Amino acid sequence: MTKERGELLHGTLEMLIMQTLTEGAQHGFAITRHIRSVSSDMLTVNEGSMYPALYRMQKRGWIDAEWGHSEKGKRAKYYKLTSAGRRELRAASQRWMRFTDAVAKLMEPQTGGGE
Description:
Layout: H1 12-21, E1 26-27, H2 28-38, H3 47-59, E2 63-69, E3 75-81, H4 83-107
Antiparallel strand pairs: 1-3, 2-3
Helix pairs in contact: 1-2, 1-4
C-alpha cells in the first residue's frame, strides 16, 4: 500500500523548521526526520530544499547555527531559533491559520445559488 505524500506550499517549510526548533537546537537531518515523523510520513523534505531554507533563515536572523557533534559522533551544524525567529513563527502561524480557515470555508458544501 502506498502513502500519498504532500508537497509543501511555498513558505511553509520555514514555518515547519521554526516550529521544530522550538523544541531545541537540531541539525538539518534531525529537523528533516522530525518533520517526516510528526507528519506520519506525509511531509518529506529533501536536502535540496532543507539546507537552502536553513541558509535563508540564518541570513534573515531567524536562526543561529553552531558546530557540534551528532548522535553518531559526526560533526554537524546545529540550528537554534532566535528571538526574531520566534516572532516570525508567531506571525507565520497566524497567516497559516487564516489561510487554512479560508480554504476550509471554500471546501464546505455551499447552500443555494450553486449548480
